[in-house]
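Hi support team,

I'm filing this because I wasn't sure whether my run with alpha-D-galactopyranose finished correctly. The job status page said complete, but I'd like someone to confirm that the output block is well-formed before I use it downstream. Pasting the exact inputs I used:
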Amino acid sequence: MALGNLSAVVEQAKSGFSERFGGNPEVVAAAPGRVNLIGEHTDYNGGYVFPAAIDRFVVVAGRRTQGPSRLVSLEPSAGEAEPFRAADLYRKEVRGWAAYAAGVAWVLQQEGFEDVPDVEAVVASNVPLGSGVSSSAALELAFGKLYDALGRYQLSNKELALYGQRCENRFVGVNCGIMDQMASAMGVADSAIFLDTVTLDIDPCPLPDGISIVLCDTRKPRQLSASQYNERRSQCEAAAKALGLELLRDATLEMLEGARDALDPVVFRRAWHVVTENARCLEFREALKAGDSDLCGWLLRDSHLTLRDDYEVSCRELNVMSEAANAAPGCIGARMTGAGFGGACVALVRIEALGDFVNKASAEYVKRAGREGAFLVCRAVDGARVVESSL
Ligand code: GLA
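And here is everything the job wrote out:
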C-alpha cells in the first residue's frame, strides 16, 4: 500500500539525517514521481495531459542552518553536493542533482521572498532514475515544500509547481513544460489528473476498479538530450507560427491539412502528432469516465504510433516494450510515456492478469530487446506534502 512505501523512504531520510548531521530534522517533506497516461509532448504546446502521481517518492529531511547549505543524497551515485549559500546563488553555479534543489531557493529569491533559508538536508528516494518518471520534478517539489515550511511562506502546491518549472527552465536549463511539476504537486489518490496546461485547471478522474498502472521500464537509460527536446519544441513553435497561432493547442487537423504545402514536411509531422495527441487526450478522458476500455486501449496504441513515426522520440527498446506489453494478457493498452529517447512504457492492466502480464511481457522483451526490463505496479497517490514538522 502506498503509505507503507512512503514511510520506508521517510525513515531512510530521517536516519540518514541523524547520521550525517546529528539530531533531528525540523521538516520532512515528500513528493511523488509521475507517470503520464496520455497527452505526450503537448504541455509546451498549451495542450492537455493526463498524468498520475505514483507511489514512488523523493523525501527530504531538512533543518535550517546558519552555515552554508549542505545537501546529501542517499543515492550512492549522487552523494554529497558542494556546499553553497542560498544568498549567493545568483552568481554561483550548482552542478548535478543539487541544482534542482538550489534552483528552487534561487526562484524563491527571484520572487522576492526574503531570508530564503540555508539548510542541512538528506534526500532519500525510491523513484527509479532515468526511467522517465520525473525524479527531478519530485526533487523540486520536495525542496519546495521544505523551503516553504521553513520560511513560512504558505505557498500553494500549484505555486510550487510553477516555481519548480522555472527552476528547471532558468536555473537547470531544460526547457520543459509544466506537466511533471503539476503531477507531482497536485496528484490525487487513485486518480489520474486531466490537466489543461494553459488554465492549469485539473479534473481528477478516478481510475476504474480492477485496473492497475504498470510502468514497463526498458532499462535503457533515458537520454533526454536537452537538444532533441528543445528541437521538438522549436519545430512546434514554427508550426504554430505558420498557422498564425500562438500555441498548437488551437490548431485543428483541417487547419494543418490546409497548410501542408507551406510547411516543412518534418514540421508538419511534428504538428500532426501534437494535434492528434491533444484530441486523443480529450477522448481518453471521456472513454475512461465511460468505462470504455477498448477505446482507451486504441488511443494509447495510437499515441505510441505517432510518437514513434511522426514525433520521432521513441527508440527500439520502447517499441519492443510497447509491442510486448500490448500483446501480453490483461493489457488494455500500452505506449511509451514521458519525453522518450529511452525510459519506460505505461500499461493499463487488469488486476487479475497482473502476474501473467508481467511474465509474458518481460520474457518477450528480453527475447527481442536482448536486455532485462523492470516492471513496477504503481498506485496513484496525492501530491507533494510535509510529512513531519517540529516547527
Ligand atoms: C518531459 C517534460 C514534460 C513533457 C514531457 C513530454 O517529461 O519535462 O514537460 O514535455 O517530457 O510529454
